[in-house]
Amino acid sequence: MTQTREAWGSRFGFVLAAAGSAVGLGNIWKFPYIAGENGGAAFIFIYLICIAIIGFPVLIGEILIGRTTQKNPVGAFAALTHSKLWVSIGFMGVIAGFLILSFYSVIGGWTIGYVVETIRGSLSNFNNPEEAGALFGELVGNVGWGLGFHTLFFGLVIGIVIRGVQGGIERSSKIMMPILLSILVILIIRGVTLEGASKGLAFLWVPDWSKITGQAVLIALGHAFFTLSLGMGAMLTYGSYMSKQDNVVSSAALIVFLDTAIAIMAGVAIFTAVFASGLDPAAGPGLIFQTLPAVFSTMPGGVYFSFLFFLLLAIAALTSAISLLEVVVAYFVDEKGWDRKGATLVFGGSIFLLGIPSALSFNLMADMKIFDKTFFDVVDFVASNVLLPFGGLMIAIFVGWIWSRTAVIAAAKEGAETLFESYPWFETLWFIFLKYVAPILIALVLLNSLGIV
Ligand code: TRP
């Protein structure tokens, strides 16, 4: 007997859940430090262009594949093509979900750990980033701490996904996303009212074009589709629960807007505080766990802001992690006839186990190197730098070249007739970006990751 497939309660619920997937560690951790390292405002400008010409067109395409077929990535490609090649691209998405979630949960665990450490008072007495860095090394170097918070984080992910699309993912996104935005607003107000904040704002708004190298452009390109959760079927899967009455184009625009606005807001909150403390903006990955704790230590009321900031990170990580698990669960539910509960527990459990060596990469297994990389780094590299760009490339090619244009447009028009009628140029422009611009630029990112260009 076929049961009716799960679906979102409303378009708003879908947009919030999809924005929750997009807004993650990439926005609040990675975006500010890559912007910091690559010239601030000038980098942000390039990044906005990449979002517009790659992120937005591919996002619409990925959601459409899901909404048209009402299936997980494997089932979706099978329904549209009957070709083994494309079905295996869908399968690669499921594998990518497996891999990304395994290490994403380790970092997600750290963010919860930092909320707890803030409450315990261990983050309030730093005189400089080095002292904060030393404690960071001690914490992640501690097997029990790393594994404990990885387990806690994963427990939350499973607890949400097991409750289903509407009762779990949608409902939790409707609670967590407004909290996330409110926290950001509070942190921005704190940031801009600090003495010396204007230097941080100048860093974000006054471009330094000398920092824009070919490499910086590639980083902006790569981040544009990482931050929108593209290339592995997460947006496809979320799109598969969407109603055919809803407008995909305007929903995608809203998701892109929220994701971009939140990344920039995080940049404002972080850089005003960092500059006000006279610290270095280009602090790399250590910006969040080393520089910021030192900033909070010197700020009046710092513990409260530290608590809010790490809570913000934990929420951002959690709403992304649930979309990763949902891809895997949807595959086993649609294709293999599992029930949601069993699929969530068994495959969530397996991904949790796969995350253990990643958690141990910062302590017990720190010296076990494969090609000079720890287990964590290998999984991160394969997933983020190889599978995602490759998947993104294939999705752009699929929608632009393989799926017939008439069918794509017909699918996009469902729920968006007026938009296509009022703006006839939109279709032309969208297809140019999908067919030519996105594949070429994504291919460059992929070749660059592989060390070929
Ligand atoms: N977009 C997420 C972030 O900005 C990271 C991410 C990349 C992701 N691909 C994904 C999350 C797929 C969920 C699903 O942090």
Measured by DSSP, the beta-strand proportion falls in: under 5%
Radius of gyration: 21 Å
Q: Please work out how many helical segments DSSP would assign.
A: 19
Overall geometry = globular
Number of domains: 1
CATH architecture: Up-down Bundle
> Total strand count, please?
0
What hetero molecules are in the model?
tryptophan
Q: Helical amount among residues, as a percent range?
A: over 70%
Q: Could you name the CATH homologous superfamily?
A: Amino acid/polyamine transporter I
Low-confidence stretches: none
In CATH, what is the class?
A: Mainly Alpha
CATH third-level topology = Amino acid/polyamine transporter I
Q: What is this structure's SSE topology?
A:
Elements: H1 11-22, H2 25-37, H3 41-69, H4 73-81, H5 84-120, H6 129-140, H7 143-161, H8 165-192, H9 197-205, H10 214-227, H11 234-239, H12 248-276, H13 286-298, H14 302-336, H15 340-360, H16 375-402, H17 405-413, H18 417-422, H19 424-449
Helix pairs in contact: 1-8, 1-12, 1-14, 2-10, 2-12, 2-14, 3-4, 3-10, 3-12, 3-16, 3-19, 4-5, 5-7, 5-14, 5-15, 5-16, 6-13, 7-14, 7-15, 8-12, 8-14, 9-12, 10-19, 13-14, 14-15, 15-16, 16-19
Bound molecules: tryptophan.
Tryptophan (TRP) binds next to helix 1, helix 2, helix 10 and helix 14.
